[in-house]
Design the sequence.
């Protein structure tokens, strides 16, 4: 067993965890933060995305025992101190960015990281950056519109930050 | 799917880490970013009894530029840190091309250069890039430190020259030559997927402007990244023009024996090798001309 002391959504947490417990299972089972979802447990779908020390990670691929001293933000941590929806959450709601909602927390965390780095991303950048999150319901258009809408409405971002990634070139074969 | 029970050890020095690998032998595996190993563990395709977490060893992270112009990257440096480092991507555009194509942002935030190289997936970008750039891998273990050139490092599918109690600590990239250009291109079904085929190309011109050295490395064309043979011989002394690129592309497509698999037939891969080689060499030529993208 490993004893970890960390912050989750700005709250201090101390816990004992087995080595094999993923961050996702720790958040869900030990802390009751079930907003983080498990879709594939192999790092492909992005539903488990949370922020650790400001950057997005697949929480199914990190062990909770590695989190000593970390600051973790989950989807539950997006809302304002008064419980107001984060602009991204409001935008997903307004733009039909979700249907079943299973992928949504992962998208929100990935989008939050994106908007902190690039305040007005173009559509191509949004689609490329979010390509690590898979949605089976929406066909993505509502998600893209939600991120664009939130970008227009976003308050000054919290400081989880990376400089922007330039869009990559897609190859096609003639 | 959950992994087996295992013990997690978190050394705070390289010496301690090596000591642990010696102590636990075959039962132990170093843990880098976990982006390849943990999925395998979640499927129970890998069941190490001990994981030695390398993430809290300070000397294993960081980028340094040597006076010679060479680049030294510590093995636990994340893909994202490298991708965002203009001092790396400007001078080594091939790294700048390849890094954003590795998985997705979340993968690159944890995945590491060293982890990717030691995992040695035949379709991965960085092994092929390291071979094309003539990188040297610095390994440290119980018997001391040694360097292995990329050409000797990748042995087969998921198999490298790293010995059981060794840790890859750094990767050394030689300075890019004068009058030298480089590029990486790949084709994948979806953004972030493993490449069906990837091509790394470098061209060096002599002072009179003809080709002096051309290197082509293909990922997805074999069990390891493959340096296309007989390229320098064909290119040396020739004008760096589309006619040469077309010839080299035809040659690359014919010279390798890629596999038939679920994702593509051998003929599909040969065609992709041809097309990507021609395009990569064209991009390199543009960069040499200063029209670089």
Sequence:
């Amino acid at each position: 067993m490993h004893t970890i002391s960390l912050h989750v959504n700005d709250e201090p947490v101390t816990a004992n965890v087995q080595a094999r417990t993923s961050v996702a299972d720790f958040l869900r089972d030990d802390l009751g933060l079930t907003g983080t979802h498990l879709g594939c447990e192999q790092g492909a779908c992005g539903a488990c995305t949370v922020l650790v020390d400001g950057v997005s990670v697949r929480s199914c691929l990190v062990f909770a025992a590695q989190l000593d001293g970390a600051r973790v933000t989950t989807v539950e941590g997006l809302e304002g101190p008064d419980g107001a929806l984060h602009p991204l959450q409001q935008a997903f709601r307004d733009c039909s960015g979700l249907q079943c909602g299973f992928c949504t927390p992962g998208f929100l965390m990935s989008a939050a990281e994106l908007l902190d780095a690039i305040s007005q991303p173009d559509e191509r950048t949004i689609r490329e950056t979010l390509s690590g999150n898979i949605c089976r319901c929406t066909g993505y258009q509502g998600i893209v519109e939600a991120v664009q809408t939130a970008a227009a409405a976003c308050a000054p971002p919290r400081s989880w930050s990376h400089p922007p990634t330039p869009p990559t070139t897609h190859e096609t074969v003639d | 799917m959950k992994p087996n029970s295992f013990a997690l050890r978190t050394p705070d020095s390289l010496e301690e880490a090596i000591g642990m690998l010696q102590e636990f032998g075959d039962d132990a595996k170093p843990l880098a970013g976990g982006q390849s190993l943990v999925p395998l563990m979640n499927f129970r395709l890998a069941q190490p009894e001990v994981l030695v977490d390398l993430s809290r060893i300070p000397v294993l992270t960081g980028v340094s530029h040597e006076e010679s112009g060479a680049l030294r990257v510590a093995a636990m440096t994340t893909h994202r840190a490298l991708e965002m480092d203009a001092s790396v991507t400007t001078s080594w555009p091939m790294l700048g091309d390849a890094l954003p194509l590795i998985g997705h942002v979340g993968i690159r935030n944890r995945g590491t250069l060293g982890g990717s190289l030691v995992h040695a997936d035949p379709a991965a970008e960085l092994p092929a890039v390291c071979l094309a750039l003539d990188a040297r891998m610095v390994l440290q273990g119980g018997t001391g430190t040694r360097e292995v050139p990329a050409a000797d490092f990748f042995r087969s599918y998921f198999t490298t020259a790293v010995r059981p109690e060794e840790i890859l600590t750094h990767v050394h990239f030689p300075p890019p030559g004068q009058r030298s250009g480089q590029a990486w291109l790949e084709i994948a079904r979806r953004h972030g997927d493993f490449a069906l085929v990837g091509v790394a190309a470098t061209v060096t011109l002599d002072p009179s402007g003809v080709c002096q050295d051309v290197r082509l490395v293909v990922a997805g064309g074999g069990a390891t990244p493959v340096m296309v043979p007989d390229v320098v011989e064909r290119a040396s002394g020739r004008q760096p023009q589309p006619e040469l690129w077309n010839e080299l592309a035809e040659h690359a497509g014919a010279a390798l024996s890629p596999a038939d698999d679920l994702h593509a037939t051998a003929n599909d891969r040969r065609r992709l090798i041809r097309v990507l080689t021609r395009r990569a060499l064209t991009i390199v030529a543009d960069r040499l001309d200063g029209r670089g993208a």
The first strand of chain A starts at residue 2 and ends at 8. The longest helix of chain A spans residues 104-117.
